[in-house]
Task: structure prediction
Amino acid sequence: MPHFDRFDICEAHCLFEWDWNKSGWLQERPSNQRRMEATSIQLARMHFKPGPGLCYETLEENGREIYDKLKWKYFPKDADNEMEPKGS
Result:
């Protein structure tokens, strides 16, 4: 079970959008639809700047759990299959 860590949450959401975006933003995420903007814009408002080497392997264990929960939340029918993000 992931615990609250603002940095892990930001990294996981940033990476998730990078991996699964369509036309530059994660359209499945309701707040993105409501605001008509990408997660990265919301993260920039929080002054979050991802490291240049950010990838699934560089996430802390907590960040990987958050990322995996996002995958289950937005792509439940595909989460059991080791589907690859578009960038792979």
About this structure: The chain has a mean pLDDT of 86. Helices lie at 6-20, 30-35, 39-45, 61-74, 76-79. The two ends are 27 Å apart (CA to CA). The longest helix spans residues 6-20.
